[in-house]
Amino acid sequence: MAAFAKSTFSAGNYAAFRPTYPCSLYNTVLNYHHGPRDLCVDLGCGHGVVTRHLSAAFAHVIGTDPSKGMIDQARSSTPKEEYPNVEYKEAKAESSPFLEDGSVDMVVAGQAAHWFDYERLFPEMKRIVRTNGTMAFWGYKDHVFVDYPGATKVLNDYAYTNDDRQLGPYWSQPGRSIVEDKLRAIKPPTKDWEDIQRIEYEPATKGPKSGQGTLFVSKRMKLGECMSYIRTWSSFHGWQEKYRQIKRREEGGEGDVVDEMFDEMVNAEEDWRKEEDWREKEVEIEWGSGLLLARRR
Length: 297
What we know:
Layout: H1 11-17, H2 23-32, E1 39-43, H3 49-54, E2 60-65, H4 68-76, E3 86-90, E4 104-110, H5 118-128, E5 129-145, H6 149-160, H7 175-180, E6 193-202, E7 212-213, E8 218-222, H8 223-230, H9 234-242, H10 257-268, H11 270-273, E9 282-296
Parallel strand pairs: 1-2, 1-4, 2-3, 4-5
Antiparallel strand pairs: 5-9, 6-7, 6-9, 8-9
Helix pairs in contact: 1-8, 6-10
């Protein structure tokens, strides 16, 4: 999670502009789970959105993250009087010495599993998760403007073209490839885990819910908000570190890579050009996603 340690990273912006998860995703995870709901651990908890939601389903929830900024943001967003059973610890997913053997009923990771070191993580999961306990990891990849194929193509070109003036070279690997492939590279050892299930969605540009699979992550956003969301990408922070002298237009600069990207999107979509202020236009967005479920033997 090196991107979250960069000086350009804002935990507040991450919390404000990242998508949240619907009740249908949480219900899928909870319906899969068997047995007690005493302790849930949220790995790579970020600003605590999953930790807080699951606090209603478990007696005690611990969110962990190696980023101090993320943990500070999570704590500030989780008032004790409202979430008395939640705590946060600054810790890596691969090492939880504060947890006893077999003490965890469920371990989850929302948009974090692609960062983990699985040679170290799986032995730790084997240690802390009780027999018949649950592991639930999910992640989402790039979003799609479901009604706008032209803008979606521009987005994909900027995100993955191997041109250092765009975003492609700045993704952390292999993490980005793992999330792009819907976490299929994460393979729980079958000697320790059983009933392994995968639930996926691949969006399309023929309107809402026109993709393949089970849709979990979607949002109606203003285009200006979408620009702010893209500026939470780890690849953008890598680009920003290289081109520190280039400022976005809203800061009085000539425009950064996101400004340029949206210039091309507006040119590609007549609908957007007609708007007096296209940044205020609301659009439907869907994310491709993968949910991995496994049960401890």
